[in-house]
Design brief:
The chain is an all-alpha fold. Helices cover about 60% and strands about 0% of the residues. Helix 5 runs antiparallel to helix 6, helix 12 packs across helix 15 and helix 13 runs antiparallel to helix 14. The longest helix has about 30 residues. The radius of gyration is 25 Å and the shape is globular. The N and C termini lie far apart (about 70 Å).
């Protein structure tokens, strides 16, 4: 029995020997010299990324706040990239890759929803140690978030005002605001497939907010009542619903995290804080896709 126990124990001497061997323990094909080659850090520009967390106070918790928001901005960039590509495929009547891209958007949304769980470890007392250093800066001023809302269909030109100081950003936002949204492209596809959609909807001013339309509602109802004929349109519709569902969950977690940390104080950017975020929960990007569930 003693011999069996001895043989079952880790080979401690060998492990220690390997630890002292340094590079000898690496596989023979592992690259270690990057003096003239691109490394992992080079490719990802990690020097720039990891130097971007410049705290303004000595608060221990400020780094969490910065990293959470910077990571969110990167995810927003990816979501906009995927939605723009999905729209191009919808215009080309190529729905399989569009559905894949929208599915990826939903997965990203689930990721950023989880990030609120991390930020919620920031207590009200923690936040007060650096909140004053933020000045008037606020997530309300995120131009990438605004682009995302615009491309999804929440059109409100007044939301561009905080970006007038940056002509390039302002022009970028204006281009998204005045172009068809993701939902506009889906509605145009319904019409191209022979479903009756009023021309007024197809030729509307895209910079204006979209309102639910009876002809669009009837077109989606036809799709949902005959999924065999319109399977790819039906699948697209459900991907759109997924996106909005996840987006609303993100909004809700945002609102509850803010309420947990600052209660009903005004936001640093001047908004009504929780009250403002609650109002946003009432907006629907794709109203007919929710209404059709009642009609069926």
């Amino acid at each position: 029995m003693a011999d069996e126990l001895t043989h079952s124990l880790p080979m401690t001497d060998n492990i220690n020997q390997n630890a002292h061997d340094g590079e000898a323990k690496l596989d023979s094909g592992v690259h270690t010299d990057f003096s003239d080659a691109m490394s992992y850090g080079d490719y990802l520009k990690l020097e720039k990324i990891l130097d971007a967390q410049q705290t303004l106070t000595d608060s221990h918790d400020e780094l969490l706040f910065i990293i959470m928001h910077q990571a969110t901005e990167l995810w927003l960039k990816l979501m906009f990239h995927e939605i723009q590509a999905a729209m191009a495929h919808i215009r080309a009547d190529d729905l399989e890759p569009a559905s894949k891209m929208l599915a990826r958007v939903s997965r990203v949304q689930s990721q950023i929803i989880q990030s609120w769980d991390i930020l919620s470890t920031l207590t009200p007392a923690d936040y007060l140690t650096f909140r004053d250093s933020l000045g008037q800066s606020s997530g309300f001023q995120s131009f990438q978030y605004r682009k995302l809302e615009f491309v999804l269909g929440n059109r409100n030109g007044a939301m561009m005002k905080p970006h007038r100081h940056d002509p390039a950003v302002y022009a970028d936002l204006e281009a998204v605001l005045t172009a068809p949204s993701l939902y506009d492209e889906a509605i145009a596809l319904l019409a191209r497939r022979g479903l009756a959609v009023d021309r007024a909807v197809l030729e509307r001013d895209f910079s204006r907010p979209y309102s639910a339309d009876a002809s669009v509602a009837a077109a989606w109802a036809a799709v949902y009542r005959d999924t065999d004929t319109y399977w790819d349109l039906y699948a697209l519709a459900e991907k759109l619903v997924d996106c909005e569902d996840w987006f609303q969950q993100w909004r809700f977690r945002h609102m509850k995290t803010v309420e947990r940390i600052i209660g009903h104080k005004r936001g640093t950017g001047g908004t009504a804080g929780v009250t403002y975020l609650k109002r946003a929960l009432d907006y629907s990007f794709f109203p007919e896709l929710w209404d059709v569930r009642t009609q069926l």
